[in-house]
Design a protein that fits this description.
Layout: H1 7-15, E1 36-43, E2 46-56, E3 61-62, E4 65-76, H2 78-83, E5 87-95, E6 101-110, E7 113-122, E8 127-130, E9 133-136, H3 145-152, E10 165-171, E11 176-191, E12 194-203, E13 217-222, E14 229-235, E15 240-249
Antiparallel strand pairs: 1-2, 1-15, 2-4, 3-4, 4-5, 5-6, 6-7, 7-8, 8-9, 10-11, 11-12, 12-13, 13-14, 14-15
Helix pairs in contact: 1-3
């Protein structure tokens, strides 16, 4: 597994909900402090890694506003952990009212590679201040990958039609990047938690270290009040990667399964 492959886990989890920006909010938040979601990442037939997403209670405030502390963790498992050990953690502090990020940090440990970074978001000024300088954004709402996921979980998806596309902006690797998501319709997905009704999406990708030029990612999110990522499939340079949900605790409402 090459450098940043484990970031693909977080990318999958985030991209699964990015489509919804610009639509109306649901009446109530789709998450609460104490929520924990866990996933397994399979490379071919082997379980290569595990990921966890958590909403943590915190007393930290930015500009006098209360926040949620979001944490995403990814680590290799099994034989992958012997040959290429990964222990990555991503944290984001978001406004409890509009879910926009104030602060994002990452602590990446991939074999011998090390990276620690942070980014402070100033939405009204359309700028992000990170270790390597100040970066301007063309829009008034810019996200990190973790906050993007939680922001869009609270938007109303009832008006989506097959083939609809929308573009949002997120900050990653010292760059503000646009991302386009296409909606593919509804499917029922079989999981360890049961059969779950889902909405299917496909985000645009940039070819490079992980993806081929013709690679595709498909993502399924639960078609209920929780809007949690359920499954993802990604074609990579060598083989394919699948992400599957294994546990969902502390949800705002029971997950709808059959």
């Amino acid at each position: 597994m090459k450098k940043y492959t484990l970031l693909l886990i977080v990318s999958m989890l985030s991209c699964a909900n990015l489509f919804a920006q610009g639509l109306d909010y649901m009446n109530k938040s789709a998450f609460k402090a104490g929520e924990t979601l866990t996933y397994k990442l399979k490379y071919g037939f082997l379980t290569a890694a595990e990921a966890k997403l958590q909403v943590l209670a915190t007393d930290i405030k930015f500009d006098g506003k209360p926040t949620y502390h979001l944490m995403a963790q990814g680590s290799t498992s099994g034989s992958f952990d012997i040959f290429y050990k990964v222990r990555n953690r991503y944290d984001s502090y978001i406004d409890q009212d509009n879910y926009s990020p104030f602060l994002y940090t990452e602590n990446i440990r991939e074999n011998k590679y090390r990276r620690n970074d942070k980014a402070r978001f100033y939405q009204s000024e359309r700028k992000i201040v990170a270790k390597k300088g100040t970066f301007k954004s063309p829009v008034s709402q810019t996200f990190d990958l973790v906050s993007a996921y939680y922001f869009t979980r609270n938007l109303d998806l009832s008006g989506i039609k097959v083939g609809d596309k929308i573009t949002i902006h997120y900050f990653l690797d010292d760059e503000v990047t646009p991302l386009t998501i296409e909606y593919f319709g509804k499917e029922t997905i079989k999981t360890e938690l049961g059969r779950i009704r889902c909405l299917k999406f496909s985000p645009s990708i940039r070819p490079g270290r992980v993806f081929r030029k013709d690679s595709r990612i498909f993502l399924w999110i639960s078609d209920d009040a929780n809007r949690i990522p359920v499954k993802a499939q990604a074609e990579v340079i060598v083989g394919s990667i699948n992400m599957e949900i294994t546990s969902a605790k502390g949800l705002i409402k029971p997950l709808e399964t059959n």
